[in-house]
Structure formats: C-alpha cells, structure tokens
Design brief:
alpha/beta, Metallo-beta-lactamase, Chain A, 18 strands, disordered N terminus
C-alpha cells in the first residue's frame, strides 16, 4: 500500500519496520481512481466487506462468537466464495473492543494492511502480524484501486492501558464511493461528509448490542437524519442484531432497528434506497 499526494512525487513504499508500523498518509486529497462498482457484504455488527474488483476492504472486523459477556446472536460470519484476501485492507474506526478486536485481526491474512486512527499504531503493531498504518482525518491513502480517507466521528476512543485515539469514519472512493460511519452519535459532520465526498453508499449504525444505547450512538431516527445530510443514494444499516449481553433474552432490539430506520428514511431521505441485509448477505452497487 502506498501513500500518494496529487501533484507531487509519491513517497516510497514504507519499509516494514520491526514493529510493522508504517508512515502515515498524506494530508493532500487524492483524485478518484477507476473501479467497477462495489459489492457490499454485511458480516454483522460493524463488519462490512467491500469488494472493488480484486481490492477488498473490511471494516472493524469482529469475527468471533463472544467478547467477554457479549455473545454473537447467530452464526459466525463468512467472507463469501469470491473472497481472496490477497489485497485486503482493514479499517478500524476506534479502539473499543467490539471494533478493534485483536483476535479477529489475527485471523486476517498476514499480508493485509490495517488502518487505524493516529495514536493507535504502536499499540496495535506490537500485537498483530500485519502492517499497521496510522491515518487521520484530512489524510488519504491509496489501496490498489481505491482511495481511503478518514472523516470525523463523534464517539469515545479510549481503551484500557491508557491508550486513546479519536474515533473516525472512512470514505472509500473508487468509481463508486462508500461512507463507513464507524460508531458515532449525531453531529454536524454528516453534512460535511455529504458536501465534500458525495458518497454513493452510506453504511450507518442504527443501534448497538443491548436493549439500551449509551452516549454517542445513532438511533434509527437519528441515523435517518444523518442519511438525509450525507445524501447517499444507497444506505445499508449496520451495527444491529449481531451481539447481545449474556443473560439478555432476544428481543426487539435485535430485529427492529433496521426497519425503523427504513421507515424514518422514507420521510427524511425519500430518495435513498435502503437495503436491509442479514449477516453475510450482500448487495451490488454499480458505478
């Protein structure tokens, strides 16, 4: 993977350091690069596999059955028959353990690249075999056929051991562009994403992993409001129906958020095509 800046010589590929932490990307915008549409495969919670030809992007991979007292509701996710893993980049939105899951990252191919918010690189590079790249808001990185640009989010970023890094989302730009919001509350940054990046697809969190939401999360209604500001033509609700605390019975919070989101979107963002996927279902968005 190489960081480039438009109108200036591209820096060399970052050498693989002993802790596998590479240099950050550039602060200058990069031009769009050609692609052939995108396939979006929701794998549960905030984990989404994007396929642009041979280039594959996976967001916040959580590939296990449990995390402490949190249990997966349903089967383990699969990457699908078309998955190659040969050109895989993982995007980490923030440091909470259901989004930055080290055992799940270790399941990815060793040749993958993991992109993290600034401040998280050294912590992670000592714990996984992949190359780790710090990339912050306003920077861009080319990964094969696509360009990755972090954008702001409103969410906590603290982890144990005193590690902290600001939460962020990502825009993945090919001929079709995808906005991955990560985990976030409602804030003015959605309008900036829409005005600056004009994404074709929005991956928006619509709930959490329990019957109640904490601070800085989107509800189905606020997610629909966010969609109206982002202006994407296709929306896929994520971050629902996958995880639940041990001892909590399956209830409406596991099934209702995406349909509530679609109902609110029909009035707040009526031009958007809301596509509700089940875990490991996918949809295709042509360029």
């Amino acid at each position: 993977m190489r960081a480039e800046s438009h109108g200036a010589p591209a820096p060399r590929d970052a050498p693989a350091a002993t802790n596998r932490l590479s240099a950050r990307g550039t602060g200058e915008p990069l031009p769009p690069v050609p692609a052939r549409g995108v396939t979006v495969r929701w794998m549960g919670h905030a984990t989404v596999l994007l396929r642009y030809g041979q280039q594959e992007i996976v967001t916040d991979p959580f590939l296990r059955l449990r995390l402490f007292h949190i249990r997966r509701h349903g089967d383990l996710p699969t990457f699908g028959a078309d998955y190659t893993g040969q050109h895989l980049t993982a995007l980490i939105s923030h440091l909470h353990q259901d989004h930055l899951d080290i055992p799940s990252l270790r399941m990815l191919p060793a040749g993958s690249t993991v992109v993290v918010p600034p401040g998280a690189g050294h912590y992670l590079a000592r714990r996984i075999p992949q190359v780790v790249v710090e990339l912050g808001v306003g920077q861009s990185l080319r990964a094969g056929e696509v360009v990755i640009t972090p954008v702001a989010a409103m969410h906590g970023g603290r982890r144990s051991l005193g590690v902290e890094a600001a939460a962020q989302g990502y825009v993945v730009r090919g001929d079709a562009s995808v906005y991955f919001a990560g985990d976030t509350g409602f804030f003015d940054g959605f309008a900036e994403v829409g005005a600056t990046h004009h994404p074709d697809v929005a991956l928006l969190p619509v709930w959490g992993y329990g019957p109640h939401l904490g601070r800085h999360h989107l509800t189905p209604r606020t997610a629909a409001h966010a969609l109206s500001l982002v202006g994407a033509k296709v929306a896929v609700p994520i971050h629902w129906g996958t995880l639940k605390p041990l001892g909590v019975r399956a209830a409406g919070f596991l099934t209702e958020p995406p349909t509530e989101f679609a109902r609110h979107a029909a009035s707040l963002a009526p031009l958007a095509d809301v596509r509700i996927l089940r875990p490991c279902e996918e949809t295709r968005i042509e360029a």
